[in-house]
Amino acid sequence: MAAGNGGNGCASVHREKFKPLGGPDGGNGGNGGDVLLVVDPNVHTLLDFHFRPHATAGSGKQGQGANRAGAAGETLELKVPDGTVVLSETGDVLADLIGAGTTFVAAQGGRGGLGNAALASRARKAPGFALLGEPGETRSLVLELRSVADVGLVGFPSAGKSSLISVLSAAKPKIADYPFTTLVPNLGVVTAGETVFTMADVPGLIPGASQGRGLGLDFLRHIERCAVLVHVVDCATYEPGRDPLSDVDALEAELDRYTPGLGGELAERPRVVVLNKIDVPEAAELAELVKPDFEARGLPVFEVSTASRKGLRELSYALAAVVEKYRAEQPRPEAERIVLRPRAVDEADYTVEPDPEEPGAFIVRGSRPERWVRQTNFANDEAVGYLADRLNRLGVEEDLARQGAQPGCPVTIGDMTFDWEPSTPGVATYFASRGTDVRLEDHSRSTAAQRKEARRVRRAGTAGPDEVGDPELDDE
């Protein structure tokens, strides 16, 4: 994602008949547009980003004469579904977007450069330069959608999770009479009395899912937000070596190995066991056999059948009670307080370090020096002199001299490396033609003390004898 670049400032002088000294009137450049991620309830997938992975905001326009500022770049808003997690390239979580209207600045637009009208001062009455616009921020982000659900259904493939969510809610997932696994999570809204909660079926997990086997890592993250985990057990399976107890043990082992990226422990979430497909006689007998074992572990057990809808009402009300208890235990969200922490006026905000790769060289790091370098047009000598003044006022030259920097040593600021030449404070009060800086040229201008002495000599030469005095009479 790339934000818009800031527009360059304009260097212009007002020209009008009978006004030879109209003064600078160059306008500022416009700011570049930001790239924003905004949660939209009407968006449900991140599929658009798969086909259009690159997004660029509008750039600011250049300033013009007559104090006309450039137009700001258009901000680009990208709609994302609720529950989107923004990750950096290294996997660090940058934002967890939950709730309609939640906004995250994915890329910051560049600042527009100041025109010479804004740069005019008592020392520079008509600057012959303007500042360049800053480039917009460019970032590579990873977007993941993690379902926002209160109840998560976990189980082996073909355990009946999709069938269960289809009969408890209005969701219409794909259901067939042959073994297969769901490829995308399904969300459904369940109403039990006065409680309304959401339910998600996590696509079939298998042993080794926490290490990336099958589709486990792709969909285990969808249970991170769930208030309760429901083990859906297929009691009518004919696969050898499988039984309800071993299935739950295998899934619990995978949940223990999985580390949630959003924090929290899955072991602390309440569990519910659902023994499914009891409409089959053999499955009903197996459910009656293993139910006491699950209850001995302290797990609530429900025997259901999605075909005959037996036990579904009791299950929905039990899940609603667990969800209500979980919601009551959560701390109430407090209104976000905006805290302003202004920086100290004398804060350096930069560092001067020796260059480890080149002896005698130095590197200056800091947001302000690096920004000033990006805004400087190095083809203009006066702009270079203005940069030198800013660095001198910030204290960079004093720190370089304190660390033993010699005139002519390489100094790197941002992407620019130049030979350091100490500037003399106060020289910037005089400039020759526009766009040039006398400090970069050889000149022989006399000092103030020399001009004062010359003026005293001239006055002495034009004075009368009585005013100046006769040396011979003084000797007498």
TrEMBL record:
Gene designation: obg
GO BP field: ribosome biogenesis
Family assignment from sequence similarity: Belongs to the TRAFAC class OBG-HflX-like GTPase superfamily. OBG GTPase family.
EC number, UniProt record: 3.6.5.-
Region (Disordered): 435-476
Any one GO molecular-function label of the UniProt entry: GTPase activity
One Pfam family per UniProt: MMR_HSR1
Subunit (UniProt): Monomer.
Gene3D superfamilies hit by this protein: GTP-binding protein OBG, C-terminal domain (3.30.300.350), GTP1/OBG domain (2.70.210.12), P-loop containing nucleotide triphosphate hydrolases (3.40.50.300)
HAMAP family (alphabetical): GTPase_Obg (MF_01454)
Function recorded in the entry: An essential GTPase which binds GTP, GDP and possibly (p)ppGpp with moderate affinity, with high nucleotide exchange rates and a fairly low GTP hydrolysis rate. Plays a role in control of the cell cycle, stress response, ribosome biogenesis and in those bacteria that undergo differentiation, in morphogenesis control.
Higher taxonomy: Bacteria, Bacillati, Actinomycetota, Actinomycetes, Pseudonocardiales
Residue intervals of the OCT domain: 342-422
Source taxon at top rank: Bacteria
Protein's name according to its UniProt entry: GTPase Obg
Obg domain sequence ranges: 1-148
Segments of skewed composition (Acidic residues): 467-476
Domain annotation OBG-type G: ranges: 149-324
EC class: hydrolase
Keywords, sorted A to Z: Cytoplasm, GTP-binding, Hydrolase, Magnesium, Metal-binding, Nucleotide-binding
Subcellular location: Cytoplasm
Organism this protein belongs to: Amycolatopsis taiwanensis
Signal peptide (from-to): none
First-listed, main subcellular location of the protein, grouped into a coarse class: cytoplasm
Cofactor: Mg(2+)
Binding site for GTP: 155-162, 180-184, 201-204, 276-279, 305-307
